[in-house]
From TrEMBL:
<feature type="binding site">
    <location>
        <begin position="168"/>
        <end position="170"/>
    </location>
    <ligand>
        <name>(6S)-5,6,7,8-tetrahydrofolate</name>
    </ligand>
</feature>
<keyword id="KW-0663">Pyridoxal phosphate</keyword>
<keyword id="KW-0963">Cytoplasm</keyword>
<comment type="subunit">
    <text>Homodimer.</text>
</comment>
<keyword id="KW-0489">Methyltransferase</keyword>
<feature type="domain" description="Serine hydroxymethyltransferase-like">
    <location>
        <begin position="21"/>
        <end position="138"/>
    </location>
</feature>
<dbReference type="GO" id="GO:0032259">
    <property type="term" value="P:methylation"/>
</dbReference>
<dbReference type="InterPro" id="IPR019798">
    <property type="entry name" value="Ser_HO-MeTrfase_PLP_BS"/>
</dbReference>
<keyword id="KW-0028">Amino-acid biosynthesis</keyword>
<comment type="similarity">
    <text>Belongs to the SHMT family.</text>
</comment>
<feature type="domain" description="Serine hydroxymethyltransferase-like">
    <location>
        <begin position="156"/>
        <end position="428"/>
    </location>
</feature>
<dbReference type="GO" id="GO:0019264">
    <property type="term" value="P:glycine biosynthetic process from serine"/>
</dbReference>
<dbReference type="GO" id="GO:0030170">
    <property type="term" value="F:pyridoxal phosphate binding"/>
</dbReference>
<dbReference type="InterPro" id="IPR015424">
    <property type="entry name" value="PyrdxlP-dep_Trfase"/>
</dbReference>
<dbReference type="InterPro" id="IPR039429">
    <property type="entry name" value="SHMT-like_dom"/>
</dbReference>
<dbReference type="GO" id="GO:0035999">
    <property type="term" value="P:tetrahydrofolate interconversion"/>
</dbReference>
<dbReference type="Pfam" id="PF00464">
    <property type="entry name" value="SHMT"/>
</dbReference>
Amino acid sequence: MAADYTDTASAAYRAALQVVESVEPRIAAATRKELADQRDSLKLIASENYASPAVLLAMGSWLSDKYAEGTIGHRFYAGCQNVDTVESVAAEHARELFGAPYAYVQPHSGIDANLVAYWAILATRVEAPGLAAAGAKHVNELSEADWEALRHTLGNQRLLGMSLDAGGHLTHGFRPNISGKMFHQRSYGTDPETELLDYDALAAAAREFRPLILVAGYSAYPRRINFATMREIADEVGATLMVDMAHFAGLVAGKVFTGDEDPVPHAHVTTTTTHKSLRGPRGGLILAVPEYADAVDRGCPMVLGGPLAHVMAAKAVALAEARQPAFGTYAQHVADNAKALADGLLRRGARLVTGGTDNHLVLLDVTAFGVTGRQAESALLDAGVVTNRNAIPADPNGAWYTSGIRVGTPALTSRGLGTAEFDRVAELVVDVLKNTSPTGSSKAKYTLADGTAERVHAAAAELLAANPLYPGLTL
Ligand code: PLP
């Protein structure tokens, strides 16, 4: 985060909230309260972070008022010169930061980025029956009749992604998401013994299924992926390799994941959110090799609504921050802290999926504590520890109650907690879990032993007070 922002940022926020208050006081109050709540909780949600005041302030402007459908220099609205500048700067930072030939910074979220990417891969790869006859260069230029024929082909493509209970994301081909309905989907899991990705099994599944798209990436897998191997598998079966690095983009940006662990040189298309370990505003972006760039560039209006220029401005600021050496140090601390957290949990008798971590999260199997993920999540919350329940491989409690909790380090690392503090966090988590018991046969109701919530709250408050969020920022 920028070093000396506090007085200016405090004044800016105070002024902004006063203006908001004059119109709708409840919104100003909720905004103030949110800061207080975030300051007071031990945030261990692996997908959340704290963006810098520079990132947050970049979003609060009249850039929000401008419509700019289209792409840089080619808009469907007049007067987009400043949005062009904003989008160009953000895309330039993204290309430089990740070493990618092409970057698209318009996606409003990670799911939107994945939808644009799927569309772009379909548009680039699927043979359009009428393309040559129509004299068109791109499927977007086909006639309605050609589209009618093409619809049947587009809707019949195959996608291979990581299964949900192994840590994959809904957008990687699962039913509640359109990706699970528009593609013939199959998923790969992890080895039942080691719980690690089994590349041989994955390759065998790919050979048999022959997907158009192989998706790599995860929301809840606590290990690094070998993207060179993923690319070999994709090449062997003629698939496009799409990597969704939403969770670990910060570790890529900070050069903790390099070589075979850096997806960008290996994937055809890489998507990400900007608000998780990358510590930017809520949003998404896409990196691609030139072959897919033209189709990705048509994301708006093909898939997306008008770009959010104020959020692209904040993405540019966050990406500029991520290019600073301090971000590399931060990313390394995120990984070191996850390791310390995992070691602390293991030492205190917990079972971790895959036996540990080498990224920014751990997946804790709470079965041995006699509770479900849902009960663990709620009891931890009572004690001021914010995590989220998560399925574990072959979860006997299913995706709603689950048997696991996902615990991540990006947010608290931004507050300055180090390995010693994360060992203490492990102690607090285990303290709560040991003192939680289910009520009867309920998978949701539980009892927390007397005094536990107070004890853990007090210990968490000490950790938080020693590592303040936005130090010096007063409203
Ligand atoms: N991809 C992955 C791997 C994710 O974990 C998530 C969110 O949790 C997304 C995509 C979706 O991001 P968003 O919530 O910004 O749409």
